[in-house]
Give the backbone structure.
Amino acid sequence: MKFKPKGILTAGLITLSIVVGIVIVGLSGLSVLEPTPNKVISQYVQHPQPLALDPSHIVAKAAILYDPTNKQVLFEKNSNEPLPLASLTKLATAETALAQEAPNVSITITSADLLPGGDWRLHVGDKLSLFQLLQMGFVASSNDAMAAVAASMGPNAVEEINATTENLGLTQMTFANPTGLDVSTTTAGAYGSAYDVALLATDFYKTYPRYFELTQKSSVSVNDNGRILTSPATDAPLLSIPSLIAAKTGYTDLAGGNLVAIFDLEIGHPLVAVVLGSTETGRFSDIQTLIAAAQQSL
């Protein structure tokens, strides 16, 4: 009788071991089987395929579709060729200014600020915040507003804008002014490659998303000491695209039509599309072609 408890205990332990073994095997099977679908989906979303798109379908001289998540080029056409940037320059000007000044800093308009175009009915002596001026510069592509932003940085603003892009490793970018307006009939105000524009847009959106996302608006209005100044968005043809995050236009005689757009391929997975040297209307159809090709690749 003394040995019965030991036998019962041993049998109980054996039974328990078998049960635990079954549970472990079951859990082991789950750990192997269950994550597989999620893993496949994750790989699929994170690594979109290069586009099977004929470059001749893009009107622009240069273009790129860039995946900033994986640092992968999904499509390119002459993407390393330096070309006139036109108002895409304003991304670099804004990034330089925001690194130095608070959004609510007051900036006084001078006569020199109105020389680029007089495109916003601003008056000498008007006081606007940096945020208001950037709204005008991004949504309506106001040259006067961006000239004032640059002037607020002091006499070395252009050198500082060049330093900003140099620090980002954008080796093809050079700036002669803060707006991108042509300096003459043969010299542009700024040059850069489509690849460098994609990297600049990626960094600007990562650092200052609030400002880039202003370009989702169909118009911009600012209160200039009681005067309401309003202008339509220059990227209006893209605003009906549901996946659009941000866009910036550019156009001069030397540049032709330029455009950079950030859109979601999948929720939380943005891609950057850039076209340089298209036409005034062709830049929009070029970007739409890149977006459609990316979505069809899923």
User: Anything to note?
Assistant: The longest strand covers residues 256-266. The radius of gyration is 27 Å.
